[in-house]
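[INFO] parsing input record for PhnB protein
[DEBUG] input buffer:
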Amino acid sequence: MKIHAYLMFDGQCEAAFNFYAECLGGTLEMMRYADSPEDMQVPAEFQQRIMHVCLTVGDQLLMASDTLPQSPYEGIKGCSISLQVDNVPEAERLYAALSAQGSVQMALQQTFWATRFAMLTDRFGVSWMINCAVDSQMG
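[DEBUG] output buffer:
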C-alpha cells in the first residue's frame, strides 16, 4: 500500500503544480477537463482547469485537481504536506521558495526533535512542514 496526498484547488492547480515542480523537482503529468475522452459537460470557462495532475519525485507522488462549479471550494485546510529533507541547505532552500508570498507559522529553526523544522502556508493556500531531523552534511 502507498498513501499519497491529493489536493483540490479553485483554478490555481496548474500554477501551483508548476511552482511545486520548480521547488521540488520531479516530473509533471497534467490533464485538463477539455482533454477528457468522455463528454463531461463541463462549462466552457472550466475546460482549461486541471482535471488531474501528478507530480512524481522519485517514488513519491503529489496529486491534485481543480474544482468544478457543482463542488463549492472551501480551501485547503486541516492538513499539511510534510517534507523530510536530509540537510540544512535543502531545508533552507525549500523554506525560502515555499514561504515566498505565503505566510509563516513557525520559522525554520532548530527544535528538540530536528536540526531544522518549519511550518508555513504557501501562496496557493497549501500548508507545508519542512523537517530536517539530522543534517547529513554534518560529519
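[INFO] The chain has a mean pLDDT of 93.
[INFO] shutting down worker
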